[in-house]
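User: Here's a chain of 367 residues. Predict its fold as tokens.
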Amino acid sequence: LGCLATDTFITFVPVQHELALAIGSVSSDGLTATVTASGGIPPYKYQLNNGAWQSAAVFTDLPAGTNTITVMDAHECSASVDTDVDDISVTADPASGSSVAPTFTVDLIFNRDVIVPTDGVTVTGATTSSVTGTGSTYTVSITADELATVTVTLSNTIEDNAGNAFAGGTFTYTVNDTEAPTVVSVSPTGDVGDDTTFDLVLTLSENVIPGAGNMVVYNGTTAVATFGPGDVTISGSTVSVAVSLDKYTSYFVQVDAGFVTDASGNGIAGITSPTEWAFNTGDFNVAVEQLDVAKLKVYPNPFSNYIKIDNNQILTRVIISNIAGQRVIDIVNPEHEVRTPNLVSGVYVVTMFTENGVAKTERIVKR
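Assistant: Prediction complete.
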């Protein structure tokens, strides 16, 4: 007998081209990748990051970072390709650190569409704030006090459509002081009585510092006193300066724009109207009458057939009464000399009137 031998033959389909895999396309947000396999022996199956195999060459909701996609052919030959998904990032307009107006907006521009939950954006230092937007752009609308520091904080609850979380971020803004001080009150106004030495006081809506220009006191068109910012006393929001003026005179004060400013350099608008800060150092008409009344004089005393009244031109009426109060003479617009021949001897009261009432009363005796 001869020897027996067994041979095993395996027949392979010849491979014309080596198996290869390439990225065919990536979506604009980077979260979907389509791959293209070539060579090898179909059918192909695909795998993402050592996960389950699938027949589709499309992968969605890719995680952030580097993703490895593998293809395997019918001979279990494999090839791989990598695709990167960027972390979620955001830019703010205006940029963090900017100075802003009391009412402003911050545009948050993400590198791809994200979902911002209600706790995704927190604003501190503001009086009011709100968040609107969708997709990759959100707007934070903010109102804050002047000189406030406003912080916009983005949390890690913000995610993209694949569930990738944002790392978080903070943006800080300083609110400018854009509002100029305004006049709250001025003093004095109206009739200041007989005082001639007093303080001019300007009260403003916020604390101020010296600026430029002048504060000028006018009598008509004549400037009677001029003060620069260095001549006045500034205490918080109050500006004052002592003046010494004439009696029974009308004055007004004008203040140049920018005479004082706030700490941010916003100057007051100034006072230009001659009626806004006007005052009198006494009632001029009353004062004149008082001077004239002092000049009223009745004589002689004792008298006989007449009496004379000095400064009678200011009088509207003269009444002469006896000691019993009986009216014996009543004259409207009296002359300088009043005839009294019919009066009997005795004591009489002379009452003198001006248009403002009784001006003076004197007691006289008839011989």
